Amino acid sequence: MSFRRFSKYICALSLAAACTITTMGATLTDVTSSHWAYSSIVDLEERGVMALTSSGQFFPNQTMDYFEIADVMAKATGYVDVDIATNVDETFKAQIKANYEKQKATLATYAAKYSTWNSAYNKQIAYLLGRGYISTSDLDKFITKTSSGEVKNIVTKEELAVLVVRLLEREKTATSTYTTTGFKDESSIQVANRPHMAYLKTLGLITADASGNSNANMKVTKALCAKMISSALKIKESTSSNSGSGSLADTNQDASLVTITKVLTKNTSEYYMCLKNSNGEVKYYSIKKTTKILDASGNEVAITKLELGSQAKVNINTENGTDYITSIQLVNSNTTDSNAGNTTDNTTGNTTDNTGTTTQTTTVTGTLLEKVSNGIIRLSLSNSAAKAYVLSDDCSITLNGTTVTADRLSISDAITLTVKNNAVTSIVATTGTGSLTSNGQITEKKLSGAGYVFTVKQNGSTSIVTIPDSAEVTRNNKSVDLRDIRIGDTIKVTKKNGIVTGVEATGVRSTVTGTIKEIHIAQTSKVLVNVNNETKTYILGNDVEMYNNYEKEFITVRDLHLGQEVTLLLDSEEVISLDVEDTSTSVNLMGTITNVGKNYSYIDVLVDYDYVTGESKVYKRIEVDSDTHITLNGKKQNRSILEEDMEIVINYKYLDDTVPEKILVIQ
């Protein structure tokens, strides 16, 4: 098999396995056919995306950092080492080389920024940058600088989900169709990653565990990576008409018959257009306002006159990683040309032109929920449901009988919309003078100049609510300050003339006990705690009081450590009191050194048992400081005595320390 790389320490290990399976001349020895990722591992091994060692080992439980994931992503999407590979299209080879030269300067800055930057993967990373699968800002996720040195970040499940959605070229679809992930632990998923997790859930690539959780923060193992990447490739192959390796430059795709299902405003010069192919696959593309659209007779048609549901032949071009529609040829003449002698049936709301084409017209009344933005208007309907509508380019707007622009409309205005083929063609508004009430649960809050901005979840959808300091606020039927409202509170908001005038919040107190699994230190800090074998995320409130019963002292969030037993007093979902009940003051790993890094700054160790992952016989890279206490025969030694095949005991003061306190060499 071509393009395999084997690291020195992986080749050295040989493990026994329950059964052996032969694939592509290599024998898979450490994964049985009953393993949940077996078929995916075999698939990627056969594709040359993920390799076995010379002795047939895959190490399914070994975690993967960003460099290793980049290698897999690049190979999965067509990358080959053109300096080694043969039988590669010369044009594609030239594109890979040209792209690498283009990205070299950027990669050089990161190699200078991080001393542990792994330049061996630069060509794969350059390829991903050129294809648009990662951006320059993503490169800062590869390594984190800490007070004790640099750490190569292990990719989490939700981070891999983002890359898989990009591999599928469905990021726009994921973000535009997202409402909720449906996982019980949605609050623990980073907001930016939730659409990707939700989309992969719809495809079956991510499923909930027995408790309904996504476990988005779990570290990606080689087995999980193989499962997700292999499944994504099979989905992409089953829905794609282009089986080639692709191009770093513009890629012209053959015209195909599709159905136009939705048109949304993207910006002042572009739209999003949603197309559905014959397989039922739905995807959003960008289209420029200057792009020509021709009807069946060859006449040019305005994009705002398209009838949703029309069939067309389209051509797609990829520009800087974005798929653009470059031409549309309608195969029918369903347009909404208002100058074609239309007559309106006021009873049915249908419009029929002189060619017999029928256009559906509806009237919608409601109250404006928020300012019109990017051509989207959102109303609160009579049944309290919220719905968004897209404005056509030639939409007429009147406010109290006077023609105005959309920005003149205010929250709580009474609105009547005329909608033709899912696009708003006219708005009749009356200045709102009454109150608008909405309910929901707070999932996020941020301090603003004049109050707070809350993210509120209601009926599976989220909205942003700005509450000024002037609003009357009660919580649990007591008058309180706005800052006393907590994440997890259920609130009832009253607006008048578009301004929040009152808030009624309800919160519940509770106590939980568990073990700290993760700590996120930020403007709003969080702790992930294992409670009754379920990991839950809790927000550390601004007024949280922390006390270490073990050390008998008050502490801060930076004094917390993984593995500590804690008791939390919660007010809704915010922690207002945290007591450390017990802590592991010493954690030991035993293993064998398999590789010594440059200048002895790190060692690779095959450890008997990893307390972080709970796995046996796994590799770990151990950072070694110059002041790490190293002992041999009872005497303190310099780290330069460390060498391959030494058996050692590695001592950490705390479970989450990145650098050990002591290393004992066993004779």
Kindly list the characteristics that best describe this protein:
9 helices; single chain; seven-stranded mixed sheet; flat; disordered N terminus; 16% helix; alpha+beta; 667 residues
Structure description:
This protein has 667 residues and is α+β, with helices and mostly antiparallel strands. Helices cover 16% and strands 39% of the residues. The chain is built from nine helices and 38 strands. The strands form seven sheets. The chain has a seven-stranded mixed sheet, with no helix packed on it. A seven-stranded mixed sheet has the order 34-33-32-37-38-35-36. The longest helix has 24 residues, at 90-113. The protein is flat, with a radius of gyration of 29 Å. The relative contact order is 0.07. It comes from Candidatus Cellulosilyticum pullistercoris. Keywords: Repeat, Signal.
What secondary-structure arrangement, pairings included, does this model have?
Layout: H1 8-11, E1 21-23, E2 26-28, H2 38-47, H3 66-76, H4 90-113, H5 122-131, E3 143-146, E4 149-152, H6 157-167, H7 171-177, H8 194-203, H9 222-239, E5 253-265, E6 270-276, E7 282-288, E8 293-294, E9 311-319, E10 322-330, E11 343-345, E12 350-352, E13 358-368, E14 376-380, E15 386-399, E16 402-403, E17 414-420, E18 423-430, E19 435-448, E20 451-458, E21 461-468, E22 472-475, E23 478-479, E24 490-496, E25 499-506, E26 509-520, E27 526-531, E28 534-548, E29 553-554, E30 565-571, E31 574-582, E32 587-596, E33 602-610, E34 615-623, E35 629-632, E36 635-637, E37 647-652, E38 662-666
Parallel strand pairs: 7-10, 8-10, 15-18, 22-25, 28-31, 35-38
Antiparallel strand pairs: 1-2, 3-4, 5-6, 5-9, 6-7, 9-10, 11-12, 12-13, 13-14, 13-17, 14-15, 15-16, 17-18, 19-20, 19-24, 20-21, 22-23, 24-25, 26-27, 26-30, 27-28, 28-29, 30-31, 32-33, 32-37, 33-34, 35-36, 37-38
Helix pairs in contact: 2-9, 3-5, 4-5, 6-8, 6-9, 7-8
